Amino acid sequence: MSAEQASLGLTGDPSRIRLRELNGFDEQSIRGVDTVTAIGLLDRLLVNAPGYSAEELKAARLTASQRDRLLAAVYERTFGPRIDSTMRCRICGELFDLSFTIENLLAALSASASSSSAELRPDGTFRLPNGVRFRLPTGEDEMAIAGLSPVDAENALLGRCLIEPENSVNLEAVQKAMEEVAPILDLDLDAQCPECGGKQSVHFDVQYYLLRALEQERKQMAREVHRLAIAYGWSLNEILGLFRSQRRAFVELIDADISAQRRQWS
Question: CA angle, 253 as apex, 223 and 244 as ends, to 5°?
Fold first, then answer.
């Protein structure tokens, strides 16, 4: 079993996990950027795969690391492989562009995970050189500690994931090992302002970035639904049932026809 399989909490081949494309119902389900919303979205998109039971393919059973990778896959399929953003320099105040690919970011995180001193056990748990064993926290663990203060939540989460916990366990060491073997896409990236050369960190969270982008497109989706309803007479459910790419392809055809008609009239 690989570390990636262990991070899934599954016994099958993680490469078989599939996500279907977003449709309008999925896009409408986004009502926030929290973890519960992210888990709900993935549950809608996960496709049954050979070797997995329906219970295994619950998004809440995935770790934050695997959940982030699936959210990154959704982002790539929906918006493309690049993350492009405009930042304001904290030193000179000028705006500058920040651009990177999800693929390169994931490659860097995978490289750091391979250097961890934690040993992957046959049962999917990990063992530190001092003998302390732990498992990776899942979405179920995260939801179980919701409402606690940040400090209490962190301690409770670590406590849930220790195997045969002892009072002498160094929780900071366990947390560091978890971050090494299963890094998440919620991190600070190094950036440099091209105007003043000032170096600074920029925070990136794939969950927030994806869910916020989908929320911001709500008005555009409403216009697309309206355009298709007027042109084809389809019902709301029929339009929302289309995959996002299908919906946009039909809207492009309608717009092209309207433009051609306008040219004929002019």
Answer: 55
- In the predicted model, residues of the chain with pLDDT beneath 50 are 1-14
Q: What are phi and psi of 126, to 5 degrees?
A: -125, 150
Tell me the three state secondary structure of residue 196. coil
Check: CB of residue 91 under 8 Å from CB of residue 200. yes
- Please give the backbone phi and psi of residue 158, each rounded to the nearest 5 degrees, phi first: -65, -40
Asked if residue 222 lies in contact with residue 245, where contact means CB atoms within 8 angstroms, the answer is no
Torsion from C-alpha of 71, 201, 145, 57, nearest 10 degrees = 20
With H, G, I as helix, E, B as strand and everything else as coil, classify residue 243: strand
Task: List, as one string, the DSSP characters of 132-184.
Answer: -EE---BHHHHHHTTTS-HHHHHHHHHHHHEES--TT--HHHHHHHHHHHS--
Q: Report d(CA 215, CA 33) in Å as an integer.
A: 9
| pLDDT of the residue at 9 | 40
pTM: predicted TM-score of the whole model, two decimal places: 0.87
Q: Helix axis angle, 35-45 relative to 64-79, nearest 10°?
A: 70
Show the tokens assigned to 177.
């090992």
Tens of pLDDT, residues 41-82: 999 999 876 666 666 678 999 999 999 999 999 999 999 999
Q: How many helices (H) and strands (E) does the chain have?
A: 12, 10
- Output the CA torsion 234→236→238→242 (10° steps): 110
